[in-house]
Amino acid sequence: MTEKIKKDKKLQADQPIELHLNANIKPVWIDDFDIGIREDDICFLRLVTNLPEGVFEQYKIMTNKRNLKEIINSLCSALKYYPVSDDTKQDNVL
């Protein structure tokens, strides 16, 4: 890697990332979600709302396993809730 590329990457890392909000996305109530994980570590999340008329899908999200673990860690941190798993076979480390 050339010195110029290293400097450019350092400058990019020091600059804040701008958040672009989408006003067309409305907040919805979510009661539950399903997660499916493929063999290539791509994760599929389906967020649903439970109503008397049935279960309604609200959003579908795809991400990789690493990003999903970071999202879960952020949620746990915000809630100050860290569930403990009895299954020691699971990969609990980010």
The proportion of residues forming helix, as a percent range, comes to 25-40%
Q: Tell me the major beta sheet.
A: 3 strands, antiparallel
Question: Cα-atom Rg, whole angstroms?
Answer: 19 Å
Number of strands: 3
- Spans where pLDDT lies below 50 across 5 or more residues: none
Overall pLDDT confidence = 86
Instruction: Give the CA-based shape.
Output: extended
- Through-space gap between termini: 28 Å
Can you list the strand order of the major beta sheet? 1-2-3
Order of helices and strands: HEEEH
List the quaternary state of the chains: single chain
Class derived from helix and strand content:
alpha+beta
Number of helical stretches of at least 4 residues: 2
Strand content: 25-35%
Secondary-structure map:
Blueprint: H1 3-14, E1 32-37, E2 42-51, E3 54-64, H2 65-79
Antiparallel strand pairs: 1-2, 2-3
Account of the 3D structure:
The protein has helices at 3-14, 65-79, and strands at 32-37, 42-51, 54-64. It has 94 residues and is of the alpha+beta class. It contains two helices and three strands.
Task: Summarize it.
Helices cover 29% and strands 29% of the residues. By secondary structure, the protein is α+β, with helices and mostly antiparallel strands.
